[in-house]
Each structure stands twice: as C-alpha cells, then as structure tokens.
Amino acid sequence: MIYEMTYQVRVTNFNKGLMWYKTLLNREPDFVPHEGFAEWELIPGCWLQVAEGTPANGSGPIRLGVLSIEEERNRMVEELNVDESFEIFSREEVPVKWATFTDPWGNRLGFFEYIDENEKNKRIQTL
User: Fold this and answer.
1) pLDDT classification of 125: cutoffs 50, 70, 90
2) CB of 71 closer than 8 Å to CB of 60
3) 39 in helix, strand or coil?
4) How far, rounded to the nearest angstrom, does the alpha carbon of residue 121 sit from its chain's CA centroid?
5) Can you say how many angstroms the Cα of residue 115 is from the centroid of all Cα atoms in its chain?
6) Which helix or strand (DSSP H or E) is residue 42 part of?
7) Total-model pTM
8) Fewest CB atoms within 10 Å of the CB: 73, 77, 80, 126?
9) Could you count the other beta carbons within 10 Å of the beta carbon of residue 29?
10) Which domains does the chain have, with CATH numbers?
C-alpha cells in the first residue's frame, strides 16, 4: 500500500535554493532535519524535498496544481525571474492546461490548472 510520496530536487547552492523554493511555495519549509535539506508538505502525504547536491539531468517535471496558471506564471516571472516565455499548453482531450519551467539549477517544474471549474472545486474539496 502506498500512502505518501516525496519528490526531491537538488540545488548546488542550498541557501539560494532554499530562498527560491520558499518564494515559489509562498512559505517556510515544514521540516528541516539537517543542514542542506528542507521539506514542504504540499498536500497531505505529498512532500517536496530540496537537497544540496548535483541536480539530476532530465528529471521531472513535478507539476503543482494551482487555481490560476496565468497568475502563478506572472508571479514566477516577477518574483523569481523565471523566463516569461514559458508557454501554457492545452489540448481538447486533456482536462487541464499546463506549463513547465526550470529552476536556476535545471530542475524541471510546472503548474497545471483544471479547465472545468466544477472539477477544480471537486478536487479542492477532497483536500
């Protein structure tokens, strides 16, 4: 039985990485067990770990569900200097729109937003 998950990204400069991810997530980490490592529980049982180390090539992306993908893209551009050209995609047969970008260490991240408001609200209520 799987009941939790973690996803780890590595950054070469932990202090800069910690600040970057604190800004991305709009909050302090939930758990800092030792130097060079921090974790956020994004939703119950789902943890994002930021660790000092060499980023893995080609990993990810981890995409985070958001209420407004356009607002989050604008915030990333303004607050974290993410390249504003990262594109938002959608396809008729897919119930979400999505976008992918990278952090300064090359880790691939992204956002997704449910297109149907009823589906979005139903997903949020389960939390």
Assistant:
1) confident
2) no
3) strand
4) 20
5) 19
6) strand 37-43
7) 0.84
8) 126
9) 18
10) 1-53 (3.10.180.10), 60-127 (3.10.180.10)
